[in-house]
Amino acid sequence: MNINNKPCPCHSDKKYKKCCRPFHTSAKVAATPVELLQSRYSAYALGVAEYIMDTTHPMNEDAKKPRQQRESELELFAKGTSFDALEVLDKGDYEASEQVAPDAEKEAWVRFKVTLEQKGHDASFSEKSRFIKEDGRWRYALAEELVDSEDADKSTSEIQTN
Questions:
Q1: Closest Cα to residue 91, out of 135, 19, 138, 37?
Q2: What's the rounded Cα separation, in Å, for the pair 153 and 127?
Q3: Does the residue 2 lie in any domain?
């Protein structure tokens, strides 16, 4: 199935070929943590395990797993999940004193909510993620705050009113 002319799974209202495909094919590098988040979400939805692994910072626990194991896990997750929505709630930069990677050019965070379904059950969550830029590339480092589906709506409304 050719998805190039279909809507991008990141829900940007653009065609996949003009949105996240250039990231997945290495024709383009994410310029911001939000771009990386969107392109990773799209890669999860499409099962592009290679991109997800390549954009995960080495400090992340998943990056320490054998590559073949991680690839199998990602493909299984993608096949069993419906990716219904991605909503960026907030974003910002970390001060130098808050950085966790000594060689980082920059560190930033993005707070977002994803709406997912697995086997007919809501698997949605909200997360505040840390992104690290090294060697001119942003990578996903870790989830700093994670709220499961039961509390995701409450968390979203609290974030938007603060």
A1: 37
A2: 12
A3: no
Place of tokens 């592009």: 48
CA 107, 133, 146, 83 dihedral sign is positive
Assigned token pair, 153: 């709506």
The string over 11-23, giving b where at least 16 C-beta atoms fall within 10 Å of a residue's C-beta and e elsewhere, is beeeebeebbbeb
pLDDT tens track for 71-130:
999 999 999 999 999 999 999 999 888 888 888 899 999 999 999 999 999 999 999 999
Instruction: State the amino acid at position 30 in one-letter form.
Output: A
Residue ranges making up the domain that contains 31? 16-161
Beta bridge partners of 47: none
CATH code at position 115 = 3.10.450.50
- How many domains is the chain partitioned into structurally? 1
pTM to 2 decimals? Answer: 0.87
In a domain, 1, yes or no: no
